[in-house]
Amino acid sequence: MENTSRERLHTILHQLAEIDYVHPENIPNIDLYMDQVLTFLDQELGTVREATEDKAMTKTMINNYTKNQLLPPPEKKKYSRDHMLNLIFIYYLKNFLPMKDIKNILDPINERYFGIESGLSFYDIYNEMVGFESIVAKDVTKDIIRKYNMSKKAFVDEPDEDKEILQEFTFICELCFEVFVKKMMIEQYISAMQDKKTDIQD
């Protein structure tokens, strides 16, 4: 049973290691029509899509993002590189944040850097951020292994069958609690950003 549990963890970690970000140099620096946008996102986000997802995004989803002012409107039905960057961020963030929070995160960046032709660009920001990806991925992997080893110290006096169930439950709860705490921290940070914006406007 112990070997089965470790093999399961090894398989999951191997899958995580295959997750890759969208490389900046792969993002087209030409305007694209909707079908081209969907094809690009589907290809580039293939390694991070959930197994239940048929497509990374759909035409309806992108139109809704524009309608709700989450995504700047396209120019003559064409989407720029900055649109693509927005959609990449939206894709990652929508898995654990509501749309209003994503809008609050992206609005200041779009207001300052979307479509600018000189100085620091949206692309420059993305390019610098993904440079930290490999560091973060290694830290996450180490932390998962640490939590797994911690869970193996729980319920050690229980019968083997019960022990495996309880230890796996402990491991999942450890991961869930961390997600909960980090999500709460993000929400608090967004709230503070909004309060600061309101104070400036007043």
Element layout with pairings:
Layout lengths: L1 H17 L15 H11 L14 H9 L13 H13 L5 H15 L8 H9 L2 H19 L8 H42 L1
Helix pairs in contact: 1-7, 7-8
Can you tell me about this structure?
It is a single chain. The protein has 202 residues and is mostly helical. Helix content is 67%, strand content 0%. The protein is built from eight helices and no strands. The termini are far apart.
Short overview:
By secondary structure, this protein is mainly α. Helix content is 67%, strand content 0%. The protein is elongated and about 65 Å long.
Overall structural class, as computed from helix and strand content, comes to mainly alpha
Radius of gyration: 21 Å
Q: In percent terms, what proportion of residues is strand?
A: under 5%
Distance between the termini: 62 Å
The major pleated sheet works out as: none
Globally, the shape reads elongated
The count of helical stretches stands at 8
Write out key terms for the chains shown.
202 residues, 0% strand, mainly alpha, 67% helix, 8 helices
